[in-house]
Amino acid sequence: MSKDTTQSPNLPWVEKYRPKQLDDLISHKDIISTISKFVSEERLPHLLFYGPPGTGKTSTILAVAKQIYSPKEFNSMVLELNASDDRGIGIVRGQILSFASTRTIFKKGFKLVILDEADAMTKDAQNALRRVIEKFTENTRFCIICNYLSKIIPALQSRCTRFRFGPLKQEQMVPRLEYVISQENVNVSQSGMKALVTLANGDMRRALNILQSTSMAFDEVTEDNVYICVGHPLRKDIENIVNWVLNENFTTAYQNIMILKTQKGLALEDVLTEVHSYVHRIDLPLHVRMHLLEKMADIEYRLASGTSEKIQLSSLIAAFQIARDLLAQEAK
Asked: Along the chain (332 residues), what's the average pLDDT of each consecutive run of 10 residues?
């Protein structure tokens, strides 16, 4: 997401606009200022970055590495291993150990090992890694990146300075998206921009991927086009579904929803998620809302277990029909 766009035009936008330096990063100012202080004072500790995807963890450490090392030094001083690489105990004892143990004769400073998606590493590999970290702290720094902190063993956590990267706020995402839109000359409506940040849910990578795919598929990035591109139910479709389940009889509601699902290629799980947030927005008596939320939670659990969508759809409609009867009793 840097301002340098001289690279290959075929690059995905998430790579083309990846920040090149710490100043380009759009959020987590407190974390970045702390790390900048570490770098300027040459007192960088071992780091542990954790948080949801697309929140700037990898971008931050790569920007730090580019700030510390010149382009010539980068390849010899930085070892980056991702989840796609084999990172079992053999790699820790082999590649990582040999990289960390070799000293830099002609260059001052330390080497940097970046272990991306470290929560995919086995417990044995993590246990082997803690000894390597301890032994070669003098000339090597480690940066461990993961989505789930609980999957990193406590012994590794205690050897690192931890930073949590939370989901990005909408006001942080919009200026960067507007910058990419202006660079790429994309036609985006106001509703399209709102849909982008809503669906991204604090994930900048997801926002850019949706923007790129929608701009390639349609001339204009509108709300409907964004939802169609990602196969997400449209807001008016959800309104129709809630209207059918509350006002039509069971058979009509079931047939209408099945037709809509087939035409739009919708998954019941996506429909359920949107109906859930819709129920929170509409004014319902407390006991009716609680009944619906409880039933929808059960349906989601059963869907996650791999049950039949048709049977679960029937269950969803039945829950709303009972809610309708409860509302009718209230009115009497």
From this structure: 51 87 84 90 92 91 90 87 75 83 72 90 88 88 94 93 92 90 91 91 92 91 89 87 92 93 88 90 88 94 92 94 87 72
Taking the C-alpha atoms of residue 294 and residue 45, their distance in angstroms, rounded to an integer, is 46
pTM for the structure as a whole: 0.79
What's at 268, amino acid-wise? Answer: L
DSSP 151-208: GS-HHHHTTSEEEE-PPPPHHHHHHHHHHHHHHHT--B-HHHHHHHHHHHTT-HHHHH
Which residue is associated with the tokens 């690279």?
A: 7
Q: How many other C-beta atoms lie within 10 A of the C-beta of residue 332?
A: 4
- Alpha-carbon torsion angle 242, 247, 253, 256, nearest 10: -70
Beta-bridge partner residues of 144: 48, 115
The dihedrals phi and psi of 279, each to the nearest 5 degrees, come to -60, -35
